[in-house]
Amino acid sequence: MKVEQILVGHMLNFSYVLYTADGVAAVVDTSFEPKKIFQLLTQKNLNLKYILSTHHHFDHVTGNEELASLTGAEIVAHSLSPISKDLRVEHDSVIKLGDEEIRVIHTPGHTKDSVCYLIPKGVFTGDTLFVGECGRVDLPGGSAREMYYSLFHKLSKLPDDTVVYPGHHYGETPTSTIGREKSTNYVLKPRSLEQFLEFMRT
Question: Which stretches make up the Metallo-beta-lactamase domain (predicted)?
Answer without folding.
Answer: 12-168
